[in-house]
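Course exercise 7: structure representation. Students receive a sequence record and must write out the corresponding structure in token form. The form below is the worked example handed out in class, using Nucleoside-diphosphate-sugar epimerase (51 residues). Read each field label carefully; the graders check that inputs and outputs are placed in the correct fields and that the protein name is recorded exactly as given.

STUDENT ID: A-19
EXERCISE PROTEIN: Nucleoside-diphosphate-sugar epimerase
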Amino acid sequence: MKVLVTGGTGFTTNRGWDLQRARNELGFRPRVSLSQGLVQTMKWYQGRGLL
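STUDENT ANSWER:
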């Protein structure tokens, strides 16, 4: 899976992630889906008053 994020106001305007190397070399397997991880991250930030 590749994810590309563009835009924003920071000095980094895009980032790309590719899990293939981690899968191949480390046997990495995500425990949660991308959508589940985003929801959990949002709740974490909200619980700390950061969103």
